[in-house]
């Protein structure tokens, strides 16, 4: 019995092991499959740095005589006469429109007017600022009209110029407010003017937006602001100076023009942040560079060039340290960048790409025989079709991209 009992005790563990082994193997296999499934469902992480977003503002102009023709011609009903360089027989218009802006590391497609207006259906786009934003607007209107030839002129809500596109129920308009702030001419009595030559002053209320746009911002789903070209002593010489007011009283000590611009900018940006609906997509277009050579607009300055500037010429023309005729653009841009860096307003930095295009202004082809004798060459605004069409391509891309991400 003892012998038999010992035999039972030695054989049972062996049977137990033989029965448990398959179960352990099966359990291990199931656990392995389970953890494999969990790992496959986890997102794959990588320490590779994602590519930076495309910078549409940095790149180069590439000449291509096969570049498709502009989307509009001299017959566009929204043209402004002095910028209609096709009708005014400006030389080199084919060459001007054979240069294409190619951003570094990415592509820039020409706007598809139908697609753009379809996405913007039942929405409105507003431009606020000086005549360079008007120049921008005219290009935009003529391009969008390709998708809706029934578009009609629109000047409601104190708009200076605009169009309504009934096929898509879209309005695109410009509100002229060259300083953005409210300002008014206050003449001096002629006796006083004769004493020191000062004919009067332009009163600028730095904390009050101009009437032309103060009450219309809620109408627009996209707004593009600018200011800068009027902030110079050529526009407001000592005989007719700007005098800055805040809360109804003169600012003391008095501000010079650039100091005044900074204070106005602070107040206008604050107003936009407070009063413009948060859902509105807001852009601030930086300066459009001028290309006067040999003197300013009122000093026989000229821009009769037949090709864009080279990269190594840009600083000679525009760096403020060189004290050239066209130095104000970069100086004003820096003030704007500093003010906007903590806001939701997006910078539309079209300055650099436009600095190259000294060849693309109306110059002497202004549509009126005596215009040059009275006003000088126009080396500030742009021929249409021309450089602003590229601005439109970029703006449209940014609008569509931002609407997708909302």
Automatic annotation (TrEMBL):
Keywords: Membrane, Signal-anchor, Transmembrane, Transmembrane helix
Keyword Transmembrane tagged: yes
Sequence ranges assigned to domain Trichome birefringence-like C-terminal in this UniProt record: 108-397
Species this chain originates from: Cardamine amara subsp. amara
Regions that span the bilayer: none
Pfam family, one: PMR5N
InterPro entries: TBL, TBL_C, TBL_N
Trichome birefringence-like N-terminal domain: residues covered: 53-106
Annotated membrane topology: Single-pass membrane protein
PANTHER family registered for this protein in UniProt: PROTEIN TRICHOME BIREFRINGENCE-LIKE 12, PROTEIN TRICHOME BIREFRINGENCE-LIKE 9-RELATED
Subcellular location: Membrane
Stretch forming the signal peptide: none
Family the UniProt entry places it in: Belongs to the PC-esterase family. TBL subfamily.
Protein name, per record: Protein trichome birefringence-like 12
One Gene Ontology cellular component annotation held by this UniProt entry: membrane
